[in-house]
Amino acid sequence: MVNREPVSIGIIGVGGMGRRHALNLHNHSGAGYVSALYDLNPVNAAQTAAECGKPRVFDEPLALIHDDNVQAVLIASPDASHMQYVMECLRCRKPVLCEKPLATHPDDALKILETESALGQRLVSVGFMRRFDPQHTAVKRVLSSGSLGKAILYKGTHRNMSIPYSVSGEVIITNSSGHDVDAARWLLGEEVKEVYVCGVRSHAEFSADTTDLLLMQLKLSNDCLASIEVFVSAEYGYEVAAEVVGEHGTAVTAQPAPMVLRQRQSRFSPVAADWLERFDEAYLIEAVEWVQSIHRGQIFNGASAWDGFMALKVSEACIRSFRSGHPEAVSAPERPDFYRL
Ligand SMILES: NC(=O)c1ccc[n+]([C@@H]2O[C@H](COP(=O)([O-])OP(=O)(O)OC[C@H]3O[C@@H](n4cnc5c(N)ncnc54)[C@H](O)[C@@H]3O)[C@@H](O)[C@H]2O)c1
To answer: Atom 40 (ligand 1): residue with closest C-alpha?
Structure first.
C-alpha cells in the first residue's frame, strides 16, 4: 500500500497504553493522524478524543475496523480481545499494530500467522517496543557491525516497583517476560529452543503462593544462552537492562537518566517509576515508524506476527518449566521464509 496522504488511524482501547499511542500519533506523526477511536468504556474514549483532535468515536469496535475511512488500526485493548480484532483487520487487509501479546494462546497466534501468510502481505506488527528504545538499538547496532564477533549470551534484568495484581510465576511469565524473551531473540538473532524457569517469594510478608522473582535460563539456536531476572517487587523503581556478551567484548544498555545529582558525598541518577516513563521514547519511535512504513508502503521494522507467535511459544514452555521444575523444550516450526525480512 503506497499512500501519499497522511494515514488515517483507528485506535481500539485507550487506557494507559492506547492513550499514550494516541497522543504520540496525534502530536508527533506527520505521516498519520488519529481518525477514529473505540473503547469499551465511553468515558475513556471521550477523554482521549478530546486530547487528540476530536476523532470520530465509534460505539462498536468492528465498525471502526470496517470503516472505509480507517486505513490502519492500533490495538491496545486487553489481551483477550487482541486475536479477534487482529483477525478482523486481516479480513479487511488493513495494517495493524497490536500491543503485546498477539493472542492469549500460541494456537490463536498461529491462526493469525496462517491467515496473514495466505494473504501474502505483511500486515501485522506486535508492540515489542524495546526494539525502538535508543539504548537497545545502540546495542543492536554494535552487534550487527560484527565488532564483538559472535554474540553468545544475553543477560537481562526487568524490575518493577510493585504490580497491582496478585503475583504468581505464571502471571509474570504471561504479562511481563514476553518483552525479555523478544529482546533476547532479537538481539541474539536466534530462536529459543529450551527454557528453565524457577522463582521465589522475595518478601516474607507476601502470601505463601506468591512468586515475584523469576530467573529464566534460555538455550537458543547456534549455541547461544540467555539469563533473565524478572522481579516485580523491586521497590526502588522500574528498570530494564540488557547486556550481550560476544567473543570480543560486551555491549550493555546505558541507563537513561535526565540528570545526575551530586549531593552530600553521593551521586544520584533518578530511576523511572514505570514503563511509560522508561520507554517514553521507544513508544514514540515505534508508533511514528509504524505509520511512516505504511505511508511509504514498506514492511515495518518492528516485531512481526512470527515474533508475537514465538514469544507465546516460549512463554508456554516457561510456564511448563516453572510448574515442573525441569528444563522444557520449545517446540515450534521453522520460521517461514515469509517472515524473513
Ligand atoms: N508494550 C508495553 O510495554 C505494554 C505496557 C502495558 C500494557 N501493554 C498491553 O497493552 C494492552 C492494554 O493495556 P493497558 O495497560 O493500557 O490497560 P488499561 O486497562 O489501562 O486499558 C485498557 C483499555 O481497554 C478498554 N477495553 C476493555 N475491554 C475492551 C474491549 N473488549 N475492546 C476495546 N476496549 C476495551 C478499557 O476500557 C481500557 O480503557 C494490554 O494488552 C497490555 O498487555 C503493553
So the answer is: 78
pTM (2 decimals)?
0.96
Instruction: Quick: pLDDT tens for 252-290.
Output: 999 888 889 999 999 999 999 999 999 999 999 999 999
Test site for ligand 1: of 20, 39, 136, most ligand atoms within 8 A of the Cβ? 39
Domain coverage including residue 16: 7-129+282-301
Q: Is 267 exposed, middle or buried (0-12, 13-18, 19+ CB in 10 A)?
A: exposed
Ligand 1 residue neighbourhood (C-beta within 6 Å): 12-18, 38-41, 44, 61, 76-79, 81, 99-100, 127, 129, 275
Distance between CA atoms of 22 and 15, rounded to whole angstroms? 10
Radius of gyration of the chain (CA): 20
| Amino acid in position 91 | R
- Domain identity same for 202 and 86: no
Mutate to test the pocket of ligand 1, among 12, 40, 130, 277 (most ligand atoms within 8 A of CB): 40
Tell me if 89 sits within 8 A of 65, measured CB to CB. yes
φ, ψ dihedrals at 3, nearest 5°: -130, 115
* Protein residue whose Cα sits closest to atom 25 of ligand 1: 13
Rounded distance, CA 291 to CA 300, Å?
9
**For the domain that residue 180 is a member of, what is the CATH number?**
3.30.360.10
For the stretch 89-140, pLDDT in tens is 999 999 999 999 999 999 999 999 999 999 999 999 999 999 999 999 999 9
Ligand 1 centroid–CA 174 distance in Å is: 14
